[in-house]
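Review box. Two proteins, two foldings.
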Amino acid sequence: MRKEENRKLTVLDLPVGDIVEAGTAVTFHTGSWRSQRPVWDKDKCIHCLTCWISCPDSSIKIAPDEKKTTVVTGIDYDHCKGCGICASECPVKIRAITMEQEKK
């Protein structure tokens, strides 16, 4: 083995084409990857925002209501990959989000 092969890689060794520009996730619609989709029941939701905090894809939609309180308003299916974290983190007795088979 050559001495050069033992050296540690640096940032200069990374291929430029594989690094995605920051803040571009909004342009990638990854919802077509899903095999399951979260279904939100607005009548069961207590707006604790645990799903919003837990979602790795920022797919839980929120907005202020008439009382200026932040509430869940739906799910962004264009970016949701169907991981199910939102459903598993929803309070056990409530289950305002359940996972269903994706219909394609």
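Next protein.
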Amino acid sequence: MSRIGVFFADGFEEIEALTVVDLARRAGIEVRMISVEEKEESEGSHGITVRMDEKLSDTDFSKLDMLVLPGGKKGTEGLEGCGALMEQLDAFFRAGRPVAAICAAPSIFGHRGYLKGKRATSYPSFESHLEGAQVTGAAAETDGNVITGRGMGCSIPFALAVVEYLAGKAEADRVAESVVYTG
């Protein structure tokens, strides 16, 4: 069974984070919700508090198959400001292991040089941060080991791209049908 880590900093965009958690779990993918702020709970950008599965300091990255970063401006700043997470993200990317980000969070990938020569998408006001990318404006993009999503309204296509990467197209299609997604 695949296992992903979804990383939370206060100010995360609730729908972007929890859609990945929900659809991945429906596909039988184990999901760990991880606080980079070492807290039991994280508060989203719209005041919704979510209980974490673990803290960053307790995370065994060798047991994760993908790292996922939800957006939200403040949440993205919190993720990017977490040196320990950035070290792990760099290690995953350099090893060709999958990384995914949506909304404002793909800006982190641009800042770290992951997007050079790749198709990518993000929230419109963050497109200038997708350094070296071919910015497509698509709901979700998968290019090699990098998955990016445009924004909250694109959370289902983004989450399905994560599922497809780890469990295959047939499973992503099954999950989409089970939630009546007609995208």
